[in-house]
Amino acid sequence: MTVERPRSPRAGDLERLGASELLFPTLVDLRVARREPDPLPPFLPLEPNTWVAWIGRDVLWLGPDAWLVLDGTGATEPGALIAELTTLLSGTHHSVLDVSSNRFVLEVSDVERHDLLARGCGLDLHPRSWRDGMCAQTLLARVPVILQERSEATRVFVRPSYADHLVAWLLDAAGWPA
Fold first, then answer.
1. Per DSSP, which regions of 18-162 are E strands?
2. What is the CATH number of domain 26-102?
3. Which end of the chain is more exposed for a tag (fewer CB within 10 A), N or C?
4. Tens of pLDDT along 11-48?
5. Architecture of domain 10-23+103-178
6. Model pTM?
């Protein structure tokens, strides 16, 4: 018996773009109050607009006291990740919230992805200034997104209500009929 892997309704369009969707990612919004001189946990990136890998997960800096933790493998249930973070952050003033259903995560891996994304984004996506390990909150096609640069792909985090519009815009910008 062959069991088919879940497939996004947007999969055909995404394949034309050299893109895919992260299916059922675990996303956790993390807020930690900074109190001097207590250091923040070492798994949190402190440099603005960067992300770090942490035991198979990505931790994206979103603000001085805000991070987004992503487990894109589907191996960790949100509740388990929340419990793990809560334990690690015990003794600090923090908030941990499951936002897994709050974002559609698109992974664009085409070699021309930076040129394509730059058509609707105000960030300088040239490799001299945009490289692996960077992330940013910005607008893409007038839609609020988070971009995460990885060596092999750029991830685009977008609210589900904007996903169809953004995919249609990307198809149009790439010269594909919608």
1. 19-21, 26-32, 51-54, 57-63, 66-71, 94-98, 104-108, 135-140, 143-149, 154-158
2. 3.30.70.1520
3. N
4. 778 888 888 888 889 999 999 987 766 667 788 999 99
5. 2-Layer Sandwich (3.30)
6. 0.89
